[in-house]
Amino acid sequence: MAETSTTSSTLPVVQQPPAYGNMITILSIDGGGVRGLVPSVILAVLESQLQELDGEEARLADYFDVIAGTSTGGLIATMLAAPNENKRPLYAAKDIKPFYLEHSPKIFPQKSGLFKWTRTLVGNLAGPKYDGKYLHGLLRDILGEKRLHDTITNVVIPTFDIKRLQPTIFSSYEIKNSPNLDVKLSDICISTSAAPTYLPAHYFTNLDINGNIREFDLIDGGVAANNPALVAISQVTKQIYNKNPDFFPIKPMDYGRFLVISIGCGSAKMERKYTAPMAAKWGIMSWLIHDGSVPLVDVFNQASADMVDFHISVVFQALHSEDRYLRIQDDELAGTESSVDVSTKENMDKLVQTGEELLKKPVARVNLDTGLTEPVENGGTNEDALKRFAKLLSLEKRHRDEKSASTKN
């Protein structure tokens, strides 16, 4: 198992609320299975830049009011926000990549041999592609009895309740009014990662502090929000509307106060591997299995992710706050790189390389007329943008700390 981060100090870092600052800071991570390696590279660079500014003990959870994640992004969000024995983040961002490289081959064991595709097809017809036992055991071992209320900063992790046919959002903000949502972090991670056809749905019950029992019948949050950035913004907006003192005097529609970094896991959009003439001939089986991928899942996940990006881009550009929204995504994955479960060393190395190359690519933004993502003129590279955002985050944290100290004095 990859080692978790430690800190030389036993004192937790106290994060001051947005009421002491100028911004509301949100980090969002898409779903994508083993492609979580892509954001792992991006996040490590962002955290290292914060450490250059504020010291080696700096962690992402110290700077973001909310860390949101879906599916593999939900796992990463939990790793960044769950506490260790010193009440500091369980994992540093640099630890996430080694974690994926070590455990992905055991979560998604690869079949081999002459009849590999036949066995895969028969297995998929009988049940999910993977039994999830290794992943479930790993998460329970790492996260133990830690619950949603234990996280160092607020987290927002979408799942979907297949019995109620509606999303279930595990949000740190909601547990005060809905204590039955204060479940074990391991159950949240297992649920948001339960991608249809890949991993089994997750059923569990939770006994809350009032003695009430709630049942959960959950699958992958990507069904509802593969890009959870808008869910996170909505959760904050709801708190402002409900007059949560942590956000006073911010107004519900004051989107100009938001700083949002949204990181994708990459997609095969530019590969254009599906066409209408091809899909016109598909029945149920072809929509579920085609050339080693699941077209139905690919379509739903990409559609929801792009709609969120487009919506946020419209709002931020309309308010002339586009420089406070950074979306880092690579739409040029091809072949096995675009799969969620190909955990061979060769493919994982390619994904790491994709993340590294993505840092050198120009900052891109949705063209509101065409709907296409285009490079921003004079926007620099994604790495340049991360450096700029790191400075903003550092200044915001210092401002909050100073204002809090002066208030107490």
Describe the protein's architecture and organization.
A motif (GXGXXG) lies at residues 31-36. The active site is at residues 71, 220. One of its GO terms (molecular function) is phospholipase activity. A motif (GXSXG) lies at residues 69-73. With 409 residues, this protein is α/β, with parallel strands linked by helices. The protein has a single domain, classed as Cytosolic phospholipase A2 catalytic domain (3-Layer(aba) Sandwich). Helix content is 40%, strand content 13%. The protein contains 13 helices and ten strands. It has helices at 37-54, 72-81, 96-107, 116-126, 133-143, 185-192, 222-225, 229-241, 276-279, 284-288, 295-318, 345-360, 382-408; strands at residues 24-29, 66-69, 154-161, 166-171, 202-207, 213-219, 258-263, 325-328, 364-366, 373-375. Strands 1, 2, 3, 4, 5, 6, 7 and 8 form an eight-stranded mixed β-sheet that branches.
Key words describing this protein structure:
single chain, 409 residues, alpha/beta, Cytosolic phospholipase A2 catalytic domain, 10 strands, 13% strand, globular, disordered N terminus
Which segments are poorly predicted (pLDDT under 50) over 5 or more consecutive residues?
1-10
End-to-end separation in angstroms reads 45 Å
| Number of E strands | 10
Q: Per DSSP, what share of the residues sits in E-state strands of 2 or more residues?
A: 5-15%
Helix percentage range: 25-40%
Radius of gyration: 21 Å
Give me the secondary-structure category.
alpha/beta
Mean pLDDT equals 90
Which fold name fills CATH's third level, the topology?
Cytosolic phospholipase A2 catalytic domain
Fourth-tier CATH superfamily name: Cytosolic phospholipase A2 catalytic domain
Largest sheet: 8 strands, mixed
InterPro entries: Acyl_Trfase/lysoPLipase, PNPLA_dom
Keywords: Hydrolase, Lipid degradation, Lipid metabolism, Plant defense
Function: Lipolytic acyl hydrolase (LAH).
Motif (GXGXXG): 31-36
